[in-house]
Write a structure and sequence with these properties.
Number of helices: 16
Number of strands: 10
Low-confidence stretches: 547-557
Strand content: 5-15%
Largest sheet: 6 strands, mixed
Helix content: 55-70%
Mean pLDDT: 80
Shape: elongated
CATH architecture of the largest domain: Up-down Bundle
CATH superfamily of the largest domain: ABC transporter type 1, transmembrane domain
CATH class of the largest domain: Mainly Alpha
Structural class: alpha/beta
Length: 557
């Protein structure tokens, strides 16, 4: 976390330096004010009524200039802080997408999308507050406290100043204890809040399942358990803060009263004059205010630290291993895929492939069938190098998969998964994600090849129609064929379809089979499924045997 904070400070050293300098300037100006107050009061106490107007007016003018300068500096600080916060937000969002694109798939499978997004958004907001508010605020109060201390040592008895510093030291110690306690509660509240966001996300994503099973009450109870836990944590944290913070403030108030009593004692003993006493009174009050403000800042900074710690941890996650050798380019035409003695199993799980052999010829439709959970979808992860085989070799077009970069593989291998994800943007935008520079003519041609001409005709604005969230306005078959249209637009020489027949009626299955058959002339097609359709022109069929939790070698039948 420290290195990440240092990196941000280094990256934005100019605006942060300006923020700190402006706040330091405010601190110096604030520290000058009590001197003028003391001089004005001294004029009144000494009875110099004749000179009060002539002598006091310049002091009032200088005070007004100080107030104006502080207001101007605070305005500059606010503007600079706003610009800096926006730039930081933009940079962190850029860093997020860059990091996300280089993290392994397994990282994102460990948490829900809603929970992840909520935490990341909260972390960014906390980072903005830390850099734009906390650091400059602490700098302002520290410079004020230091300037006040210097003035006290210069004009007032050392015993009085040391007593004031002793109170400040004790207050600082108590604040550090409070900070540690609040750090524990901040981490616990964050973890509980993450659980609440996960329930929110899963409820919305699975609302159809919840309603079909009439499970609204169960989900509500599940949510209530988490919110009750967060409430208890929040109450405990609030109780600690409500006891400690006023207690610390009371200590400083009593300390200030004790300092005044000590000052009176020194005056009575003739060791301190009236003017130094007035100066001490004003500056001791300012020192107390600065310490109180520092107390509030430090007591609440643990929330920011917790968010920054998680944000820095995410950005420090190890990316996918880079290719350590020169990579090659795959041909743009259909090529064969071959697995030789492939062995693979997920960490902590059973072995899914045990010295398996497989040949998928070019310009063919190859089907691998098997029961759900047998490991068919895992083959996609292996072909895209999302995971690496433990033993054996995978080759595409006679080229070892390890010599082909991940980027090149994902450009040339088109995959249609069971999710059929459709983004909430125009139909054009949903297709351009596969080929950003495609023309409207190419888009319409891909839609026609995917047998989506009738679907397109129903859309009120054609390809400019904005799709419903997750493509809810389209049938399962139409969503699937939209995904196939993406592959056709990209002209992928290798096409993989994972469980393409699931949730389709007979007509939709027949249409999909016709689309697949038509693609065979330009692509190598692999279909992973536990059921087949008679209209599909299958060239090769393999069976994946996952009996007894262990996969037997893939064999041609």
């Amino acid at each position: 976390m420290r290195s990440w904070i240092t990196g941000i400070i280094s990256r934005y050293r100019l605006p942060l330096t300006l923020l700190v300098i402006v706040q330091l300037g405010c601190g110096v100006l604030i520290a000058l004010q009590p001197r003028y107050y003391q001089q004005l009061v001294s004029l009144a106490i000494n009875g110099q009524h004749a000179n009060l107007w002539t002598s006091g007016l310049p002091l009032l003018e200088q005070l007004a200039l100080i107030f104006l300068a502080i207001a101007v500096l605070q305005g500059i600080s606010g503007y600079t802080g706003t610009v800096f916060s926006f730039n930081l937000l933009k940079q962190l969002q850029t860093d997020f997408f860059d990091k996300a694109s280089h993290l392994p798939l397994s990282y994102f499978q460990q948490q829900s999308a809603g929970e992840f997004f909520t935490k990341f958004s909260s972390d960014i907001a906390q980072a903005q507050r830390f850099f734009a508010d906390f650091l400059p605020g602490v700098g302002r109060e520290l410079i004020t406290a230091i300037a006040v201390t210097v003035v006290l040592f210069y004009f007032c008895p050392a015993s009085l100043t040391l007593a004031a510093l002793g109170i400040v030291g004790l207050t600082t110690l108590l604040v550090s204890v409070l900070n540690r306690i609040m750090g524990y509660y901040a981490r616990a509240q964050r973890a509980t809040w993450s659980d609440i966001q996960r329930v929110f996300d899963e409820t919305i994503q699975g609302i159809d399942t919840v309603k079909v099973l009439a499970a609204e009450e169960q989900q509500a109870e599940h949510f209530q358990r988490h919110t009750s836990g967060l409430q208890k944590l929040s109450v405990r944290a609030g109780a600690v803060l409500s006891v400690f913070s006023p207690g610390i403030e009371l200590l400083t108030q009593l300390g200030g009263l004790g300092l005044v009593a000590l000052a009176y004692y020194l005056i009575a003993r003739g060791k301190m004059g009236l003017e130094p006493f007035l100066l001490f009174f004003f500056y001791a009050t300012l020192l107390q205010m600065s310490v109180n403000q520092l107390t509030r800042l430090v007591a609440t900074v643990q929330t920011e630290f917790t968010g920054i710690r998680h944000l820095a941890g995410f950005l420090a996650e190890a990316p996918e291993a880079e290719d350590s050798h020169p990579t090659v380019t795959l041909p743009s035409q259909s090529v064969a895929i071959e697995l030789s003695s492939l062995t693979f199993g997920y960490p902590g799980g059973r072995r899914l492939y045990n010295r398996a052999d497989l040949l998928i010829p070019a310009n063919s439709v190859t089907v691998i069938d098997g029961e759900s959970g047998s490991g068919k979808s895992t083959l996609i992860n292996l072909l895209l190098r999302l995971y690496a085989p433990q033993e054996g070799v995978i080759s595409i077009g006679g080229i070892d998969l390890r010599r082909i970069s991940r980027t090149e593989l994902r450009k040339k291998i088109g995959v249609v998964t069971q999710n059929h994800f459709i983004f909430q943007e125009t139909l054009r935008g949903n297709l351009l994600i596969a080929q950003p520079d495609a023309s409207d003519r190419q888009i319409l041609q891909a839609l026609e090849q995917a047998q989506l001409k009738d679907f397109l005709a129903r859309l009120p604005q054609g390809i400019e129609t904005v799709m419903d969230p997750r493509g809810q306005g389209a049938s399962t078959g139409e969503r699937q064929r939209i995904c196939i249209a993406r592959l056709l637009l990209r002209e992928s020489p290798i096409m993989i379809l994972d469980e393409p027949w699931s949730n389709l009626d007979d007509r939709a299955r027949k249409l999909l089979a016709e689309v697949i058959n038509a693609c065979k002339s330009t692509a190598t097609i692999l279909i992973l499924t536990h059921e087949r359709h008679p209209a599909l022109a299958v060239d090769r069929l393999y069976h994946l045997d996952g009996a007894q939790g262990i996969l037997s070698p893939i064999r041609f039948t």
